C-alpha cells in the first residue's frame, strides 16, 4: 500500500514522500558525520623495539577532497526533506513533485561525482552515501509518478 496513515494536516504519507524524508535525512547525517575517506598507517614494530607513531585521518563527506560536491548534496537533500515536510503540514506550501525528481537525480549525480573524483581510501560512509542518494532519487521518481502529467493532480495508486 502506498500510504502509511494520515498526517496531522489530513493528507496521508505516500511511499515517495516517506523514502525522500527517510533517505534524505540519513544522507545528510552520513555526509556530516560518517567517514567517507579513511587514511591510516599503523605500523607495529614494537616487537623489534622500535616505536613509530601511527597516523589516522578520517574525512567526512562535506570535507575535502571535493568538499563542494558533499556540501551541495547535503544542502539539496536537506531542502528536499524540508519541502516535503512543509508541504505535508501546511497547505500554503506548493507541492512540487517534479522538482523532487530533478533534485534526487542531481543529488545522486553530485555524490557519484564526489566519489569518481577521488576514489582512494573510501570509508563506509561513501558506500552508504551512494545507496542513500540512489534511494533519494528513487523517492523523487516515485513522487513524480504519483501526479498526472502537467496537471499537478494526484493520480490514485492501486
How would you portray this structure in words?
Helix content is 54%, strand content 13%. The mean pLDDT is 83. The strands form two sheets. Strands 1-2 form a two-stranded antiparallel sheet. The chain is α+β, with helices and mostly antiparallel strands. It contains four helices and four strands. The longest helix has 23 residues. It is elongated. The N and C termini lie close together (8 Å). It has one domain: Four Helix Bundle (Hemerythrin (Met), subunit A), CATH 1.20.120.
The largest beta-sheet arranges its strands as: 1-2
Our Rg estimate from Cα atoms comes to 20 Å
Structural class: alpha+beta
Order of helices and strands: EEHEEHHH
Summarize the structure in short.
With 158 residues, this protein is α+β, with helices and mostly antiparallel strands. It is elongated.
Which key terms come to mind for this protein?
Four Helix Bundle (Hemerythrin (Met), subunit A); 4 helices; 4 strands; two-stranded antiparallel ribbon; 158 residues; two-stranded antiparallel sheet; alpha+beta
Secondary structure layout:
Elements: E1 3-6, E2 12-14, H1 15-33, E3 35-41, E4 55-60, H2 67-89, H3 97-117, H4 124-145
Antiparallel strand pairs: 1-2, 3-4
Amino acid at each position: 500500500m502506498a500510504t502509511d496513515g494520515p498526517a496531522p494536516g489530513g493528507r496521508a504519507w505516500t511511499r515517495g514522500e516517506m523514502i525522500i524524508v527517510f533517505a534524505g535525512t540519513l544522507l545528510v547525517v552520513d555526509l556530516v558525520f560518517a567517514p567517507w575517506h579513511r587514511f591510516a598507517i599503523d605500523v607495529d614494530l614494537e616487537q623489534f623495539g622500535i616505536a613509530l607513531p601511527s597516523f589516522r585521518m578520517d574525512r567526512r563527506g562535506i570535507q575535502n577532497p571535493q568538499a563542494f560536491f558533499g556540501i551541495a548534496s547535503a544542502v539539496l537533500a536537506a531542502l528536499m526533506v524540508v519541502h516535503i515536510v512543509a508541504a505535508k503540514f501546511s497547505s500554503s506550501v506548493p507541492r512540487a513533485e517534479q522538482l523532487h525528481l530533478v533534485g534526487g537525480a542531481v543529488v545522486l549525480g553530485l555524490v557519484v561525482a564526489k566519489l569518481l573524483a577521488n576514489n582512494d581510501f573510501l570509508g563506509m560512509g561513501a558506500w552508504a552515501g551512494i545507496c542513500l542518494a540512489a534511494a533519494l532519487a528513487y523517492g523523487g521518481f516515485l513522487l513524480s509518478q504519483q501526479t498526472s502529467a502537467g496537471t499537478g493532480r494526484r493520480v490514485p495508486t492501486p
